[in-house]
Amino acid sequence: MDGRIARTAGRARSTIITSGSTAAVEPVRVEVSGLTKTFGRVRAVDDLSFTVEPGQVTGFLGPNGAGKTTTLRMALGLVTPDHGTTTFNGAPYAALSDPMRRVGAVLETAFHPARSGRNHLRVYCRAAGLPTSRADEVLDQVGLGPAGGRKAGGYSLGMRQRLGLATALLGDPAVLVLDEPANGLDPEGIQWLRGFLRHLAHDQGRTVLVSSHLLAEVEQTADRVVIVGAGKLVHEGSLEQLRSGTDGEGAGTVLVRTPHTTRFADLLGEDGVAVRVTDPEGMTVTGMTTAEVGRRAFADGIELHELRPHTSGLEEVYFRLTAGSEQFAAAPAGSAAPTDGRRNR
Amino acid sequence: MDRLVRSEWTKLLTTRVWIGLVLGACLLAGGFAALLTAFAGNAGSGLPAVGTPQFEQLAFAVAANGTVLALVLGVIGMTQEYRHRTATPTFLASPHRGRVVVAKLIAYALAAVPFAVAVCAVTVLVVAVYAGARGAVPALSADNVAVLLRAALAMVVYAVIGVGLGALLRNQVGAIVGALVYLYVIEPIISSIPATSGAYEWMPGGALEAMTATTRTTDLLAAWQGGLLLLGYGLLAAVVGTMLAVRRDVV
């Protein structure tokens, strides 16, 4: 009797997920506070604090070796921090009564190679006290239904990512933590994942934290970003703040190519717009849209060869923020050979 | 806790490792039973003749050979989490790692019961058919059943030791090879050197012999003492392993 009720409840819950309506999920705020971890002589994570809000996708960014994975593992109790805490609505992971029903995590794509995807999921259904029918539901949800009976050892990297995501979704958790989930996914899979994560956060009010070393990967998905470099927080805020922040080389900047840079710069300068002439035929204008710049040029009869928004701004900000924090930085191309040559001469 | 135990059984039954181990243990016990029966009563072998209670107890006691594979079963049950990196989802499902180890101890002790029944059944079958062909089917007398029960119990305890050893060492190949080298090389050496042979009765191999041997050539504990000592070794390994190894960072 009990079993039947539990199974029905499970089915009802999954209908909510797949139907796309607004699910009643308890909003959970994740607070990371002062996390610090040293491995040997390397300080992997250094006094890191940030919050992850419900109803949003938060991108957790940083170069390889910046401490992202260590931070996530500390947050989930797999690695013991030297200092600091992570709480889910005030409670650390180990204190959650039914952790898989509160927090779902995809940290690595390792499975017992001889166990089928479906059986892998059933193992964790049992551990979490969920009906084993959830295994088939989440397999369908991530598009692995037909491959559920095959051994996980034969899965492609993309299929492993999906199985990992399915494991995280078993308990229908309010919080999802994903470490580099786009690794190994094909472009179609990445597209699907983006839509899926947005749906979970925006339509269902779940808290989604997704790490990546590529800004472009989360740029279209994330509402907020937390950027780390060498274990330290370098930026926390919305993508808009990141774009407009610092020195204004963000989305508000327009690139203009014209033979009359000096004259146009003077005209725009009279309007109080920030202008920077970059070369005899190029300039950047900050504080005006492309339409406004075009209208001004048209009104004054200035010949334009190019007019476009400065889109690479975000990537540049990301690079500057994390500059020098890569664990293994390569020497700039071609820098070594000329030095040697000069010495020989 | 029952959830975690059931989760462990699902893990065990959804790969084929258990089939190989059960078959291996049955072959080992059945093979030794056949050999023993073949040479029973042979003047050169020194074995008691078919039809004597000494032979029947000795032949049934070979079921205890299954302990080695019960040990391997327990070791694999614990160490596969590290070998295949499933420790991450397992400890996410149950952040209290001590409970995972306890669940494995219970799950593998109980799983070793049908394992032991199968090994004992094969042993009895081989001896009954072969000794029957040689003139005397052994009866399931109280003494003979007691020998089988002690062998079965030893297999259950060895599965527990396997889980404990796996928790302590975490490395699957290392734990299995280490256990085999210890049982078949180190302990025999210790027991054969006069200066150290006195310690043998307190060691896992000596305790196993106390539990299952039907003839005694050296000083041994009583069967129940040997069983408790073995269980103590298994639980000690599990507790120390949980504190020193299982609590370590899963990176």
Write a structural description:
The complex is a heterodimer of chains A (345) and B (251). Chain A has 345 residues and is of the alpha/beta class. Chain A folds into two domains: 2-243, Rossmann fold (3-Layer(aba) Sandwich); 252-310, Alpha-Beta Plaits (2-Layer Sandwich), CATH 3.30.70. Chain A is 38% helix and 23% strand. Chain A is built from 13 helices and 13 strands. Chain A has helices at 2-19, 68-75, 99-102, 117-128, 133-141, 157-169, 187-203, 215-219, 239-244, 261-270, 290-299, 313-322, 336-344; strands at residues 30-39, 42-52, 57-61, 83-88, 103-106, 175-179, 207-212, 224-229, 232-238, 253-257, 274-279, 282-286, 306-309. In chain A, the strands form three sheets. A six-stranded mixed beta sheet of chain A has the order 5-6-7-3-8-9, sandwiched between helices. Chain A has a four-stranded antiparallel beta sheet with strand order 11-12-10-13, covered by helices on one side. A three-stranded antiparallel beta sheet of chain A has the order 2-1-4, covered by helices on one side. In chain A, helix 5 crosses helix 6 (157-169). The radius of gyration of chain A is 25 Å and the shape is elongated. Residues 1-22, 246-251 and 334-345 of chain A have low confidence and may be disordered. Chain B has 251 residues and is mostly helical. Chain B has one domain (2-244). The mean pLDDT of chain B is 92. Chain B has helices spanning 2-13, 17-39, 53-61, 67-83, 87-93, 97-133, 142-169, 172-192, 194-197, 204-212, 223-246. The longest helix of chain B is centred in the middle third of the chain and has 37 residues, at 97-133. Chain A binds chain B through residues 70, 73, 76-80, 93-94, 96, 99-100, 103, 105, 107-108, 110-116, 119-120, 122-124, 126-129, 167, and chain B through 3-4, 6-7, 10-11, 14-17, 80, 84-86, 88-96, 247, 249-251.
